[in-house]
Amino acid sequence: MADIKYYDVILKPVISEKSMNIMGDKKYTFLVHPDANKSMIKEAVEKMFTGTKVKKVNTMNLPGKKRRRGMTIGYTAKSKKAIVSLTEDSKEIEIFQGL
């Protein structure tokens, strides 16, 4: 496994209707590096967003989707998604405030 630093773990936030609904419960959804584990994700969120305290991390592996181009069949890249739950006394994450 490659040496993954904390700034390489979180790739981008997930902006969807479901992820916006759970933000009221202080749960935030991110696309993360496929080789990152839960402790790496927790460390990355706490270091990148000051004042946040992570309570729990749930992860999902998303396989690549099947795509066709003529007779050739291939797959898109696989990805990993993480739902990060913050504690009640934690600050909120600012990148989601304007949405």
Describe the structure using short key phrases:
single chain, alpha+beta, Alpha-Beta Plaits, 4-stranded antiparallel sheet, 6 strands, 20% helix, globular
Please describe the biggest sheet, giving its number of strands, its sense, and whether it closes into a barrel. 4 strands, antiparallel
Query: Termini separation (Å)?
Result: 36 Å
Share of helical residues = 10-25%
| Molecular shape | globular
Total number of strands: 6
What is the subunit arrangement here? single chain
- Which structural class best describes the helix and strand composition? alpha+beta
Which superfamily, in CATH terms, is the homologous superfamily? RRM (RNA recognition motif) domain
CATH fold descriptor = Alpha-Beta Plaits
What's the mean pLDDT score? 92
- CATH class value: Alpha Beta
| Element-by-element helix/strand order | HEHEHEEEE
| Poorly predicted segments | none
Give the helix tally. 3
Which strand order do you get reading across the main beta sheet?
A: 1-2-6-3
